[in-house]
Request: fold
Amino acid sequence: MGFPAFASPALPEAAFFLDWEALFRRLPASARAKVTWTKPRIDAGLKRLLTESVSDAVLDDVARDLMEPVRALSRAILELLASNRDEFRASVMDDLLREEGRLNAFLPDDDSRDTLAWVLGFLRSFVGLVMTMVEPEHLASLDAEQLTQESTDPDLASFMRGQVALMAAVEAVRQGAGGDRCSTLIDSAFLSFMAFRSAIRNHGLWLSPFPNETSAERQQSLLRYAARLRETLTDQDWQTLERACARRSRTKTGKRSSAPAWVISADASGHERCLGVPQTGR
Amino acid sequence: MLLDTNVVSAFLKPGAEQRSPKLVAFVTAAVAAQSLTISAFTEFELRRGVEELVTKGQGQRRLVALLKFLDRCDVLGLDGGGGWDFAAKLWARGRALKPAVVLTDLDLLIAATAAFHRRPFATSEVNLVKNLAAIGLSEVTLVPNE
Reply:
């Protein structure tokens, strides 16, 4: 199977990081020495996400800033693990499981824990897929020029945003930062990975965060999310949503249903004109 | 069964179980029978409303909640296999009637999505049911918002 054009071989490198400090410590001294420079840059980037308002702009900035150090660390670990692919995949999955436990214990509500389950489920599916498609040796041997070209890939940017938001969430746990900030970072990671998933879908690839979910489990989840939406969206929010949904069926004679969304008029030649959409909505 | 935006919206509103118990029971039964199936145009309608909230700085958590819900829905579109052609023919069929039946684009496209995928369609809009019947789409269920 060929690798889709979207998914540059550098992409999976970013997937290996949640607890980057643990990864750093796992490196032998000689390998660690080569990537010592990455530590202050990662520290600085994550600090921004723990102290500033987590906006798209800040997330973009940090994702850009951390792309190079994250890749350098990834390459270091890939070089070590390239000789044993199964062990490599197992270590990635183990890392995800461990971090999920730590984050779950720290997050303040079930909703955030549920979002985290989606995020890590998606990462597991993605990393699992990549590991079946790309040899670690190939990833480790990418040259700097290839990586630079790929750093401008918008699909990769959404992946990196999700990645750094997750790294920051792990850092928030380590530092005992507020649970609300951790939730916000998990939400940001979710939205970024959703954008990434949509992007790769355009290349014919669909990944489920819950590939083993049964139909009954899916139905239960759907009903639970519906109940959650009822709690989350207020009547005032629905006024905005209903304006966005405003429409009504109509006939050419101008007869309208009781609460018309479209105001129709006919000019002298009999041509219809839409005069506007009243705010009453649907 | 493909549900119209008005059915899904009523199902998701605060206090839906009290405000619209019959509709909630209908949707819950539809979910239990298969899943919750909507048109990509309904996804667009719901999504753009929440995106407006996000733009106003009120909505990241709301958007996450909506997307998690949508992620569990089956979303059908018109791409591939002549779906858009089918919708265009439906539109023309309505225009050819006397008096002409002219649906809003979203009404037409959502109903066309259901028919194209051979799914029954459920809406809360009485006039839409009548107009769809006039253009030959009869597998439409009216779900009163009660």
In short: The beta strands of chain A are 250-251, 263-266, 272-276. Residues 1-15, 252-282 of chain A have pLDDT under 50 and may be disordered. The first helix of chain A runs from residue 11 to 14. Chain A is about 65% helix and 5% strand.
